[in-house]
Design brief:
single chain; Glutaredoxin; Serine Threonine Protein Phosphatase 5, Tetratricopeptide repeat; Thioredoxin-like_sf; TPR-like_helical_dom_sf; redox-active center; Thioredoxin_domain
Length: about 325
């Protein structure tokens, strides 16, 4: 079954962006305080509060919780391997999101009334509840990048439309003061990647990051480092004038626009890079559009999800897509 994307049409209230941004800034300050102090910030919740088991008796509590954090509801069953796999992915992403949303898992065999209430036709099925309002996200299996993209948009909509910025997570809850982190299993490879970058050996850096990801596909530092190294590798040795001429000649040429956006970003013209690819998404279709969208999401990650230019471009992308 093909995934059904969430419709964002009509959800974004631009008049609320400023107030939501202020609320978000306060939440980020609280998260930073919790990180510096090893947790213990006022109102902080333990990490286990990010993944819940939801049944019919607890649904009202989930509705109330949705006033302060988006609640992602995943319907699954032991009878469905695909739903179990998606639920596992969602658990990992919820922990990575660090309180920007919570995951509530519903066993369809144990909660038939919730299945009926949400009109579930098949599993896996994923909804969200924001400020008491239910939104369908997707039904059926979906690749990780699409799941991440949809959840990122959910967080953005919750912030902009409702001023909901999520929970502060106390990472040290129940453990006392955090101990010094032991050396990571991939520190040597990461150091090799940085040494290669410093020496201008982009191919070596790319391979070092790939070696880390081969053992740990979710390693955030390696994923970011790989994206940065590959960006530098793509622009190495290209003729900027030829690239920009090709992009100017055909606004619908996805490859030409992507190449020009890479040059824009490396040259420090971040908004130009984002604007170029958003415009290209607007005028392309099918595989070309998806290729451009994915490159734009990659550039977002390189710049940083909290950068105001990324937030602005995500809003523009959401308007184009939905």
């Amino acid at each position: 079954m093909q995934p059904r994307n969430m419709s964002m049409s009509g959800v974004v209230d631009l008049a609320a962006v400023k107030a939501a941004g202020e609320a978000k800034a306060k939440a980020e300050q609280a998260r930073a305080q919790a990180a510096r102090q090893g947790g213990g910030a006022p109102g902080a919740v333990p990490p286990e509060a990010l993944v819940l088991t939801l049944d019919e008796a607890g649904f009202e509590d989930a509705l109330q919780m949705s006033a302060e954090v988006p609640v992602v509801i995943a319907f699954w069953s032991e009878r469905s391997p695909a739903s179990k796999e998606l639920a596992g992915l969602l658990e990992r992403l919820a922990v990575e999101a660090a309180g920007r949303y919570v995951l509530a898992k519903v066993d369809v065999d144990a909660s038939p009334l919730l299945v009926q209430q949400f009109g579930i036709q098949g599993i896996p099925a994923v909804f969200a509840v924001v400020a008491g309002q239910a939104l369908p996200l997707f039904q059926g299996s979906a690749p990780e990048d699409q799941v991440r993209d949809t959840l990122d948009q959910l967080v953005q909509i919750a912030e902009q439309r409702f001023g909901i910025t999520g929970l502060v997570v106390d990472a040290a809850a129940g453990t006392g003061a955090p101990a010094a982190a032991p050396p990571g299993p991939h520190d040597a490879l990461l150091e090799a990647a940085m040494t290669a970058l410093d020496a201008g050996d982009l191919a070596g850096a790319v391979q070092a990051y790939k070696n880390v990801l081969a053992e740990d596909p979710g390693h955030a530092e390696a994923k970011l480092g790989l994206a940065q190294a590959e960006l530098l590798q793509r622009v190495q040795g290209v003729d900027p004038q030829a690239v920009r001429a090709a992009a100017a000649a055909d606004p619908k040429d996805a490859a030409a626009q992507i190449a020009a956006a890479d040059l824009d970003l490396v040259g420090g013209h971040v908004e130009d890079a984002f604007g170029r690819l958003v415009d290209t998404v607007r005028v392309t279709f099918g595989d070309d559009r998806d290729t451009v969208r994915l490159r734009l999401l990659e550039l977002f990650e390189i710049v940083g999800a909290e950068d105001p230019r990324v937030v602005k471009a995500r809003t523009a992308l959401a308007r184009v897509l939905f």
